[in-house]
Sequence to fold (115 residues):
Amino acid sequence: MRIVNIHEAKTHLSRLVEAAAGGESFVIAKAGKPMVKVTALDVPAPGQTRRLGFLIGQIQVPEDFDQMGRETIENLFSTAYNTAATASAAALARNSRGDTPTTRLKAFENTKGSV
Fold:
C-alpha cells in the first residue's frame, strides 16, 4: 500500500482521490507516522439505488405484530415493580417503628457487655 506524506497529499489530492476511487488505497503519513487510510467507498452504482418495498410478497407480518410478547413484558415489569414496592414497603415499616441502621447500631453497642 502506498504511503504519501501530508504535503504531497495536499498538493495532489484530486489525483490521489481518483486513484483511491479506482481501488488504489493509500495511507497519509505525518513525519513518517501513518495517520489515515484513504480507500474507496462501497456505494451502489448510479441507477442501482435501493428501492422501498423490495420484499413485497416475500415476507408476512402478522396483524398483531405490535402485541407480540406483550404478556411477557408486562410480567417482567410488574414483577420488578412488585419486588421493588415490597422492599420499599418493608423499609418504610422498619423506619416507622424506629428500626433504622442507627438504632440497630446503638442497640448492638448497648448489648456488647451483657453477653
